[in-house]
Design brief:
With 587 residues, this protein is mainly α. The protein has 22 helices and 5 strands. α20 links the parallel β2 and β3. This is APC family permease.
């Protein structure tokens, strides 16, 4: 009997998805500055506005359809299963990329503290730890997520305090100097466009709460959206402003600062001790994003399995109510991707970016379709048409920006990497959706190939059987003088051992000199029972035994007569062999 599963409260649910979205502070400020320069905080505020619109969009859809699955669930109830599966594939790819990138980046931050630690093996260990934690149950996972979430917010608060103290002591001159610098892209519009496209990655994780809504207490889901929106609206723009106030833009756009911006900020304002705290926080919150991926993908694949898209194999649960087979499968997928990329998980940026933004856009489309096709469904809140269209347009703009964004030197484009993973994934889903049709097609192909061969062998089989029957149906004639049963038994043994035929005529030619023995018929009936495989016919004919008589019998029965002489050594055969056309002599 499965253990009763407790629903998640506001803090637990917010922590699980909040670790993912709040971990974006580690990279999104540096990413926005790389493209938008001094306008990075503006692009991050625009992202906050877009996310505010999505709060209503998600709230309306999940309020009307409070089931796991996110965009998949929205499209499943408004379009077709194939369209919904398209969204599900994108979501799974997004979670896979998030898990691998977050785990790898988490170990890189820990490696900053422990340089001797191997990256790839420890990344696999980290993925395995969170797989086991998720198998242990969502309640246990939530406890770990809460601890990470609180530590993360506390660390950011402490870091912000140190930065503010440092700036009040040293002034805001660097911030004003950065504001006067020329834009590397040349145009403010291009800078904001590309900066906004890059900054939209900072809301990854916002969609996660919708994928495990069934595990949340009633009324918790909209609160998770509110809390996540508040976190990224405050932290991300604030950290971008702090970064611009501490370092010049060329420094911020260097590779070193792009990867470890918050650690550099901590070391600048608080020394090595604060940098270590930030590195530890980065390790923990990125690990929390791995946990978010496991929880989110479990809820999604459970729903897909219940809808018979995935095999029922994945529905098996353990005593704690966890779908452990889904978790193990996702762990193996993530581990294989890590090993295939040989730890260069930056290759997955295209998968992560395009998948996540596509899912956001599809969710907005799902909201529109819900308004049109399922308008009578009760829902706690409604997003206005204007808000939905603006939000979808903003996400599409960000998606286009990430597709056309020039890749870093030595790396493929976002679109090419995305297609490399998306095409085999969607092909697998298409096969699962159409497996019955495909099996029927396969059966038709097999029939088309093998039916002619099968028909040929059936004809050959029938021809062989006819020949066998023809051979077995040829009769053997034995002329007896009234021999005893022992002699007749020799005949039966001879036929069984040497002849193909299974039909025997035992003929006695009676006349004035030859009489039919009284027991002969009974003895023949006895032999018929003893040799059921041989059909015996007893025939009594009038006349004198001679070659002429044998030939007349041959014509009468339309069979060649093989004459068998039964006798003892020294007996003289009464006729010439050549007169009978084939005599078999048994002594």
């Amino acid at each position: 009997m499965n253990k009763v599963q407790h629903k998640l409260n506001q803090l637990s649910a917010t922590a699980i998805c909040g670790n993912d979205i709040s971990s974006s502070v580690l990279y999104v400020s540096a990413l926005a500055i790389a493209f938008a320069g001094q306008y990075a905080w503006v692009t991050l505020l625009i992202v906050s506005v877009v996310l505010f619109l999505f709060r209503k969009i998600y709230g309306e859809v999940v309020g009307a359809l409070p089931l796991n699955g996110g965009a998949y669930n929205a499209l499943l109830n408004t379009t077709s299963k194939s369209t919904a599966s398209f969204a599900a594939t994108l979501t799974i790819l997004s979670y896979m990329a998030t898990a691998v990138i977050s785990a790898n980046e988490a170990i890189h931050y820990l490696h900053h503290l422990i340089p001797a630690m191997p990256i790839i093996p420890m990344t696999l260990v980290l993925l395995g730890i969170f797989a086991l934690l998720t198998i242990g149950g969502i309640s246990e996972s939530a406890k770990v997520a809460i601890g990470i979430f609180i530590f993360h917010l506390g660390s950011l608060t402490i870091l912000s305090g140190f930065i503010l103290y440092f700036l009040f002591q040293n002034g805001f001159g660097t911030l004003f100097d950065n504001w006067q610098m020329p834009l590397s892209g040349g145009s403010i519009y291009t800078a904001i466009f590309l900066g906004f496209a890059a900054s939209m990655l900072g809301v990854s994780g916002f969609e996660s709460s919708a994928n495990f809504v069934e595990e949340q207490e009633k009324g918790v889901f909209p609160k998770t959206l509110r809390n996540m929106w508040a976190i990224v609206s405050i932290i991300n723009p604030l950290m971008a402003v702090f970064a611009l106030a501490l370092f010049t833009i060329p420094v911020l756009q260097s590779d070193e600062y792009q990867n470890t911006l918050l650690i550099e900020m901590g070391e600048q304002v608080g020394g090595e001790g604060l940098a270590i705290m930030v590195a530890l926080d980065a390790f923990l919150v990125l690990s929390g994003a791995v946990l978010t991926s496991f929880v989110g993908v479990t809820g999604l694949i459970e729903r897909m399995t219940l809808d018979r898209i995935m095999p029922p194999f994945f529905l098996k649960k353990n005593k704690r109510g966890s779908s452990f087979r889904i978790i193990i499968m996702f762990f193996l997928l993530s581990a294989s991707v890590l090993l295939i990329t040989e730890g260069n998980v930056k290759l997955l940026a295209g998968v992560y970016t395009i998948s996540f933004l596509s899912v956001m856009a599809l969710f907005g489309i799902g909201n529109i379709l819900l308004k049109i096709r399922r308008n009578k469904l009760p829902r706690p809140e409604r997003a206005s048409w204007f808000a939905v269209l603006i939000a979808i347009s903003a996400v599409i703009i960000a998606l286009i920006g990430n597709i056309i964004m020039p890749p870093k030197e030595g790396l493929p484009s976002n679109l090419s990497v995305f297609l490399y993973y998306f095409i085999p994934s969607i092909l697998f889903i298409i096969i699962m959706l159409n497996r019955t049709v495909l099996l029927k097609v396969l059966l038709k192909i097999i029939d088309a190939i093998f039916n002619p061969v099968q028909r040929y062998f059936k004809r050959l089989d029938r021809r062989i059987l006819r020949n066998i029957n023809k051979i077995n149906s040829q009769e053997f004639v034995f002329f007896t003088k009234g021999d005893d049963i022992a002699t007749l038994n020799k005949v039966m043994l001879y036929i069984k051992k040497n002849e193909h035929t299974r039909k025997l005529k035992i003929v006695i030619v009676k006349n004035d000199l030859v009489k039919v023995p009284e027991k002969l018929k009974e003895e023949i009936e006895f032999l018929d029972k003893e040799y059921p495989e041989i059909k015996i016919e007893f025939v009594v004919e009038e006349g004198n035994f001679s070659p002429e008589l044998i030939n007349s019998f041959s014509e009468k029965w339309n069979i060649p007569i093989n004459f068998m002489f039964i006798g003892s050594p020294g007996d003289k055969f009464p006729y010439k062999i050549e007169e009978l056309g084939g005599v078999r002599l048994i002594i």
